């Protein structure tokens, strides 16, 4: 767990002079004891409002609460008790917020899983978290099937894309389901239950009794590579997540000339809810203000995405540089009505200035870039939402957040000098799940989290990222760690050595390039690609492979990725 000091030393806070007058320097005392309490209160307060829409079907807040009761009832009937972990492995569907709420209200911890993970990746995450149950879309059930014999997960719930679409016209449902069935590999999980089984349990009166959680209880395990590339669960407490929601809520006050969001804001949720950005900004912050979230299951289908956008007068649009760029290149997107758009949030990866400027030209709205990590729940800094033009910085620390720039010896650097960005605030994780040594590596004595990113702060308190201290590769907002890629590659019998680096890519920011030294002269590029495809989810797979006779090394034999990167420049 993160270190606690009795009295934290004061630091200079140049960013406060750049704060709008209506935004305080600190958040107030948290109103809720847990994320579950916040979500439940929102469902009761906004009962008749639409909460989530997906593929033409809308679910109101009261229906969300009712269905989450069913999930909670089922989990309790299976013997899960407070603190147990439950995995969710699905894209943006109506089922996701239902399951999310059911898990949290039962006093359990949500383990978010990328549905595109390979069996190797899934096995690690389920084993490391100790997840006792998993909810999975049938398209990915075959992956779960492959690992069940070697993980502690006892209960499996399989849902179908069309499970909650029954209120639509039959033709629409048939089109959706027929399309999805083509994408469902064969699977067999004896003893599994369906989402309809879960939602049908105790039909009528429910026996669900919500379990009270507190600020220090763990709400989410968000898996990240951390500093070494071994996937670790960032343990996010209720305090962490509630604090970040409160911080971001204050930041919204400057919108629309200081009136904030409209009474019934519409959020576009194209980023996956299993990712910490959408989880906090869309699901939790959105529900906190009674927003209507429009879920996009497959934002890579740009024409389909744009067709859905045409149905809504949306106010808030979180996205990544790659998503913004892809939309801007679509002619139909440029014809949409953007008169309601108040806020476009850029995160996950650097927003490129040309993309930001084109976005403003097309939509009339600036992209407000922010910065954070899974370990910071996630937002640590953000640009003011009332800026008149794109700043090219990651903005100012949010209320109750401190940022310092430190050298390799841990000493604070003056404004304008480049060092490691270190973050302190109530949103910083409790620690890495069951890894106190890794937690100690990233937390300082005075409670700062060492981000591994290099940057500098200007006199206005804005921070600019200039490089990464780690060898991490950033692909469309997802962290990719060379150690993991190299370990997978080296496990192939025909590979003697391997080294992975990131190289620039106009679509995803960076892609993985893998350098390979053969131990078998018959090894082909296809062999390497097939092996990586079997063991790595798509965004981690090398897009470029280069065979070499040897790799540059230090005198003790450590591969010098730096020289490989310099060779690409």
Task: Note the gap between the termini.
Answer: 40 Å
Under CATH, the topology of the domain at 59-213 is which?
Answer: Rossmann fold
**How much β-strand is present in the residues?**
15-25%
CATH architectural group of the domain at 59-213: 3-Layer(aba) Sandwich
* Count of discrete alpha- or pi-helical segments spanning 4 or more residues: 17
CATH class of the domain at 59-213: Alpha Beta
Q: Strands across the major sheet, in which order? A: 7-6-5-3-4-8-9-19
Principal-axis shape equals globular
| Average pLDDT metric | 92
Low-confidence stretches: none
Global Rg:
23 Å
Largest sheet, strands/sense/barrel: 8 strands, mixed
Number of strands: 26
Helix content: 25-40%
Structural class comes to alpha/beta
Explain what this protein looks like in three dimensions.
There is one protein chain. Among the domains are: 59-213, Rossmann fold (3-Layer(aba) Sandwich); 473-568, GMP Synthetase, Chain A, domain 3, CATH 3.30.300. The mean pLDDT is 92. The strands form 6 sheets. The chain has an 8-stranded mixed sheet, with helices on both faces. Strands 12-13-14-15-16 form a 5-stranded mixed sheet. Helix 1 (35-45) packs across helix 2 and helix 12 (321-328) packs across helix 13 (353-363). The protein is globular, with a radius of gyration of 23 Å. With 569 residues, it is an alpha/beta fold. The two termini are 40 Å apart. It has 17 helices and 26 strands. Strand 22 (473-475) and strand 23 (478-480) form a beta hairpin.
């Amino acid at each position: 767990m993160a270190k606690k000091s009795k009295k934290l030393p004061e630091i200079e806070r140049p960013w406060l002079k750049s704060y709008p007058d209506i935004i305080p320097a600190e958040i107030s005392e948290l109103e809720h004891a847990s994320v579950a309490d916040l979500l439940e209160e929102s469902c009761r307060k906004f009962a008749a409002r639409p909460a989530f829409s997906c593929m033409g079907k809308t679910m109101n807040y009261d229906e969300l609460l009712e269905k989450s009761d069913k999930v909670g009832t089922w989990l309790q009937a299976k013997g899960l008790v407070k603190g147990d972990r439950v995995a969710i492995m699905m894209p943006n569907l109506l089922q996701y917020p239902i399951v999310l709420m059911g898990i949290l209200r039962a006093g359990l911890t949500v383990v978010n899983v990328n549905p595109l993970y390979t069996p190797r990746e899934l096995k690690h995450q389920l084993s490391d978290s100790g997840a006792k149950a998993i909810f999975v879309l049938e398209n990915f059930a075959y992956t779960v099937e492959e690992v069940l014999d070697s993980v502690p997960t006892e209960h499996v719930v399989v849902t179908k894309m069309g499970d909650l679409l029954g209120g639509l016209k039959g033709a629409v449902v048939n089109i959706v389901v027929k399309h999805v069935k083509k994408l469902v590999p064969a699977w067999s999980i004896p003893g599994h239950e369906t989402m309809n089984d879960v939602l049908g349990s105790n039909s009528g009166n429910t026996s669900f009794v919500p379990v009270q959680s507190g600020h220090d209880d763990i709400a989410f395990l968000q898996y990240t590579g951390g500093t070494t590339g071994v996937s670790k669960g960032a343990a996010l407490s209720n305090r962490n997540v509630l604090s970040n929601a409160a911080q971001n809520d204050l930041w919204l006050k400057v919108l629309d000339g200081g009136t904030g969001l409209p009474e019934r804001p519409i959020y576009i949720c194209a980023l996956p809810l299993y990712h910490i950005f959408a989880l906090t900004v869309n699901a939790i912050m959105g529900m906190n203000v009674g927003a209507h979230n429009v879920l996009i299951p497959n934002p890579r289908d740009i024409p389909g995405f744009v067709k859905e956008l045409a149905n809504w007068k949306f106010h808030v649009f979180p996205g990544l540089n790659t998503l913004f760029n892809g939309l801007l290149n679509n002619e139909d997107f440029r014809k949409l009505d953007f008169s309601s758009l108040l806020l476009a949030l850029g995160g996950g990866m650097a927003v490129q200035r040309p993309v930001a400027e084109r976005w403003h030209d097309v939509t009339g709205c600036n992209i407000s870039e922010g910065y954070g990590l899974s370990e910071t729940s996630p937002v640590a800094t953000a640009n003011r939402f009332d800026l008149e033009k794109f700043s090219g910085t990651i903005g100012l620390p949010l209320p109750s957040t401190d940022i310092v720039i430190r050298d390799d010896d841990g000493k604070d650097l003056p404004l304008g000098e480049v060092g490691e960005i270190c973050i302190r605030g109530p949103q910083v994780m409790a620690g890495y799940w069951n890894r106190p040594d890794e937690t100690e590596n990233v937390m300082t004595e005075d409670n700062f989290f060492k981000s591994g990113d290099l940057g500098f702060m200007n006199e206005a308190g804005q921070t600019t990222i200039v490089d990464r201290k780690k060898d991490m590769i950033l692909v469309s907002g997802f962290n990719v760690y060379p150690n993991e890629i190299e370990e997978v590659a080296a496990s192939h019998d025909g590979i003697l050595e391997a080294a992975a680096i990131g190289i620039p890519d106009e679509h995803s920011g960076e892609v993985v390039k893998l350098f390979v030294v053969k131990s078998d002269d018959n090894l082909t590029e296809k062999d390497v690609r097939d092996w990586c495809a079997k063991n790595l989810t798509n965004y981690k797979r090398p897009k470029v492979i280069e065979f070499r006779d040897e790799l540059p090394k230090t005198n003790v034999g450590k591969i010098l990725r730096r020289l490989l990167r310099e060779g690409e420049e």
